[in-house]
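User: Could you check the structure of this?
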Amino acid sequence: MFWNNMFWNNMFKEIDKVISEFVNNSSNKFYINNLSEISQMSEAVFKMQETNTVTNMWSKRIGINESINYVYEFINSFDSYMANQFMNIIRYNNGKNKTVTILQREGREDEKQYRNEVDGKGNVYIYYENTPNDIFTIFHEMLHKMNEAYIIEKEGNKSENYTRDYFGEATSIIGESLLGKWLVDNEIITKNDYDIRMKKRLIGSKENARDVLIEAELIKMKLSGLEINEQNLLQVIKNVKNPTLLQIFNDESRDFRRMNSIKKSKSLNIRKSQRYVIGQYLSYRFEKRHRTIEDFKKLNYEVGNINANINQVVDQLRDDLKEL
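Assistant: Sure, the predicted C-alpha cells are below.
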C-alpha cells in the first residue's frame, strides 16, 4: 500500500521497540489501564467543530501590565486568596530568585524555541505580543505555576503526582474559557477575540487527540502480541470500522508525521497529549453543567494538592458528568 521499502521497514522496527518499552514499563500501567476512556475522549475532541471567526486579527492592543491586571481582577472576582497568590508570584520576579520571565515576543517569533511554559524546574516563561492573547497566556501558564504539586526531585527536575499529570492542563484550559467569557461580558475584549483564542486552542487539542488515537492503536497492537510492521498495520487498518479512526489512519499514511515523531524522539507523546485532550473535553462538559466556576475551583485544588488521590478525583468527575 505505502511502505514497500527498507526505510519504512527500519522505521517500523524502531517504533516497535519504543512501543515495547512503553508497554513493559510498569510506571505506564495507570495510563494503559485508562487507554479506552482516553481514546473515547480523544475521538470526541477530534470531532468537535471549530468556531468560525469574523477575522483572525485581534481587536486592540493591550499592554502587558494591563493584561496582568485583568487576570488579577478576574481571579479576584471569585477567589481573593488565589488572586493574591497570583500577584505574589508575578511580583517575586527579580534577582537570583526570579521565577517568572516575561519577554516581548517580537524578535522571538519561533514558538518552539521560545515557548510559553513552566519548565521542569518550575520557572515560568511568558512571551507577550500586546494583544488580548496575552491575557489568556498569562492565566494559562500562571495556573500551572500556582497549582504545581511536586513530589520527587530528580536530576534538577521535578516530577508530578498522577493528579497533576492527568489534569494539569485541564485547569488551565477550563480557566482560559472562563476568563474569556468574563472578558467579553465586561467588554474588555470582543466575542471574536474570544473565538480566536478558543479556535486556536481547539485546533491544538484536535492534533493532540489525533496523536493519542494513533499511539493508542499501536499500544493495543503490542498488548495483543502483534509486532509493529507493515503487514500487521495494514491488517489493523483493514479491520477498522470507526470512520474517525479510518480518517486519521488514512491521513497518517500520507505524511507519517506521528510515526516520524515517535522514531525521531524515541518516545511516545501520549502522556503529554492526553493532558490537552482531557482539558478540552472537560472544558466542554463542565460548560454544559452550568457550574463551571465551582467545578474549576474544585479541580484546581486537587491538582495542587500534594496528597490528592487520582482514583478519587476521577471517580468524582465521572459522577459529576453523569448529571449531563
